[in-house]
Amino acid sequence: MEVLVIMKTTVDIFSGFLGSGKTMLIRKLLSEKVYGKNTVIIENEFGEVGIDGEVLRESNIEIKEINAGCICCQVSGSFGDAVLEVINKYNPDNIIIEPSGVAKLSEILKILSSIKFEHKLTIRNIFTLIDIRNYNMYLRNFREFYLNQIKEANKIILSRTQFVSEENIKEVVNSLKKYNSKAEIIFKPWDEIKGSTFIKENESENAVETIRDIEEISIIKNKGIKMFKKEANHTAKEVFESYPIELIKGTSTDEMQKKFQFISNSSKFGKIVRAKGIIKGNDGLYYQFDYVPNEFKARKITWSNKNVVSIIGSELNKKELINLFS
Question: Which of 108, 218, 257, 262 is most buried, with most CB under 10 Å away?
Fold first, then answer.
C-alpha cells in the first residue's frame, strides 16, 4: 500500500521595524542562491506606494504585493488569501514573507497558524531584524509594535553593527535577551556571514512559542498585589501614517539627502521614522533611495521611472512636507 506524502511549503518570515534592513537581507540571501528557483516572495508595504516590491523584482522571483495597509490590521483576510493563492497556484518549495515594518508579528503568526494552513506550510524561521543604531529610540517611542516583533521571533538579527562599538552591541544583546531569552541573536556584520547561516535550523533547545499572548507583569510592592496588564492593542493605522509625494521636477541624490538631514534636525515635519522612493536625477537617470534616522542611501536603477517619495511616521505635517519637496 502506497503512502501519500504531502510536501509542505517552507515559510521564512522576515519581520522588523521600518528600515531595519529586511529587504536588504532578503536580497543578500537571494544573491547567494540560498533559496531555489521555486520560491515566492509575499511582500507587504505600509502605505500607498510600493517601492520594496520593485527592488525585489531584480531577483526575478514571483512577488505578491499587498499595499492596502498593514497586514495585521487592514488586510489580514487578504493576507491569508494571498498565501493560500500562492501555495495553490505555484506549489512553491519556499515562501519568503516580508511584512510591513509596523505589522504585529503575533497577528501574522496567528493567521498562518490557522487550520487551513495545517497541511500546507511549515514555519521554519521567524526573523526579527533590529537596526542597532535606533534600537533605544524605537523601543522608547513605539514600544507596543517593537516589542511584539521582538518577543515573537525565534531569530533576532542585528543590522548595521559595523557602525557601532562592541560595547553598544553587548548592551543591545543583553537588553534583547530580557524580552526574548529563547531567540538566537545574530549580531556579526552581514558581510562576514554566509547567507546559509541565517536560515539554518535554530540550534537552541528551546524554540520560541509560535503564538504568545503578550502581557507585562507589574508588581505593586506596597500591597503585595500582582497585576497582569495587557499591552495596548493599537492598530498600525492608529499610530502610523504614510504620505506619498509625487515629484514634478528632477532632483539630485545629494539634494534629497540634504532635505532629510534638515528633517532630522527639525520637529516641524512630525515624527518621521522611514522614507523611501524613486527619483529622477538631474542627469536624467533614476535612483532608488532609503532613509532611516542617521542614514540615507541611494543607488542608480534601470527598472523604474517613478518620481515619488513615500514618508512614514506619526503626526506628520503634510503641509510642511509638501513645501519641502515641491
Answer: 108
First to last CA, the chain: 71
Q: What is d(CA 313, CA 311) in angstroms, rounded to the nearest whole number?
A: 7
Radius of gyration of the chain (CA): 20
Count other C-beta atoms under 10 Å from residue 253's C-beta.
18
| Beta bridge partner(s), residue 127 | 14, 155
Sign, CA torsion 253/256/261/262: positive
Instruction: Using alpha carbons, list the distances in angstroms from residue 185 to 29, 85, 211, 318.
Output: 18, 33, 19, 38
- Predicted model pTM: 0.72
Q: How far apart are CA 273 and CA 200, in angstroms?
A: 31
Look up cell 532609503; give the residue: 290
pLDDT in tens, the chain (326 residues): 554 556 899 999 999 998 899 988 998 998 899 998 888 888 876 554 555 666 556 666 666 655 544 444 334 457 888 888 889 888 999 999 998 888 889 989 999 999 889 899 999 999 999 999 999 988 988 899 899 999 999 999 999 999 999 999 999 999 999 999 999 999 999 999 999 999 886 544 333 333 333 333 232 233 333 333 345 677 666 778 888 999 988 999 999 999 999 998 898 999 888 888 999 999 999 999 989 888 898 989 887 888 999 998 888 999 999 999 98
Which of 147, 154, 158 minimizes the C-alpha distance to 206? Answer: 154
